[in-house]
Amino acid sequence: MKFKQLAAVGLVTAMVFSTAGCSSKSQQTESSAAQAEKTPENSQEKAQGGEPVEIVYLNSHADVWEGDVGKEIIQKFEESHPGIKVKTESYPFDQMIEMVEVKMKSKLSDFDVLNVDAPLVTSYSVRGYLEPFENYMSRDELDKVFTQTGLNAAAYDGKVMTAPKRESGMIMVYNKDILDENNIPYPAYETDKRMTWEECLDICRQVTKVENGTTTCWGIIGDQINRVWNVMPLANSLGAAWLSEDGLTATGYLNSEASVKAMTFYQDLFNKYGVSPKGVNTNEAREMFETGKVAFTWGDPVCYARAKGKGINVGVCPVPYFEGGVPAVGCDSWHIGINANSKHKEEAAEFIKYITVGEGSSIFLDSQNNIGANMERIARITDASAPDHEVYALLASDLENYSVSRPKTPGYNEWSDVVNAAIEDIRNGADVKTTLDTSAARIDDILKKYTK
């Protein structure tokens, strides 16, 4: 039997942040605060007459949860929820994904809360890893406090399985000084005047400098240079989807004519035109932009904040689109879920509410320079009086109108491993059509096990 899913895969245009019939902003804020501060009765009883309940949070952000920010969030949560104690277990991303698989397959209950990368919601739900979050927060309340893009990513089989903790979105960030040195006007900020990828390439060729055989200034580099999230929107701009709507077929999608065209353009940035560097990983790519060696990058608002924090004179503009195509930007980020085997699900839900719509949400997201999926927060940081409001306003606008979700498939980990490898091979000069054909066939073979 084929697995069930709620939302279609591919380009999602005109995604609204709010839903019809939502209450006013003040009502939303009051309601979400009430939800976040509500403490389960059994936890209150523990606080009054017994030991507090300890919940364990499995996460992939040691820099946050083992540092001052995480300690502040947990301290304030425990003060407002005296019957609950929080213990964190932090791992690098890949190791955490492996840890979740090992623990869940063994049906372990030694952790209660876990980070869930948005594309993994379907995969985890199919295999029974998650307790539906909507069991602890009504659908009306969910619709009032979270963006629709966040809830779409959280959905499986008609249920909201997780709570959106972050949101991504994309902006183009540029080094003003490099453009000034080359007498090039800044790209338009207005979304209806966004430049095309073809126009962007022309600028990148002008600013790329080679001295004695060494490139001293590069034109462009992606913030996540060889990852699906950063690269797939190029194909979406030409109308391509990289997996079928049922999440089980790659042939005819990943290797479509539009996809081949988009990935040929991507390859040419590194090989034919030499405006992007080969042989660097994501961390090295980020460092290059943050040290003034690259004119353009595109990614979530964190890439803007990092560069600005290191003294780069940065500007922002909409992510380009292909001539004859449509704008497309990546979306979705980290969600947080409840272990289906947890013995403390109510307490886990209270912690999740606190860090997604309660006071902990602002502390966490401010430290991450992230827009979040919380309606109240988005209204606050896009207000004209807020710092860097123009960055978040641009991000929110494109998220609402041109966001692209990564495929919903039970085999997301396998799919992304194959596609990421294909992106890297193409960047390094492999034949585009052959690479995509081979990768699509391999994915089809892998996903067969989910059709039974």
Automatic annotation (TrEMBL):
<protein>
    <recommendedName>
        <fullName>Multiple sugar ABC transporter substrate-binding protein</fullName>
    </recommendedName>
</protein>
<feature type="signal peptide">
    <location>
        <begin position="1"/>
        <end position="20"/>
    </location>
</feature>
<keyword id="KW-0813">Transport</keyword>
<feature type="region of interest" description="Disordered">
    <location>
        <begin position="26"/>
        <end position="51"/>
    </location>
</feature>
<comment type="similarity">
    <text>Belongs to the bacterial solute-binding protein 1 family.</text>
</comment>
<keyword id="KW-0732">Signal</keyword>
<dbReference type="GO" id="GO:0042956">
    <property type="term" value="P:maltodextrin transmembrane transport"/>
</dbReference>
<dbReference type="Pfam" id="PF01547">
    <property type="entry name" value="SBP_bac_1"/>
</dbReference>
<dbReference type="GO" id="GO:0015768">
    <property type="term" value="P:maltose transport"/>
</dbReference>
<dbReference type="GO" id="GO:1901982">
    <property type="term" value="F:maltose binding"/>
</dbReference>
<dbReference type="GO" id="GO:0055052">
    <property type="term" value="C:ATP-binding cassette (ABC) transporter complex, substrate-binding subunit-containing"/>
</dbReference>
<dbReference type="InterPro" id="IPR006059">
    <property type="entry name" value="SBP"/>
</dbReference>
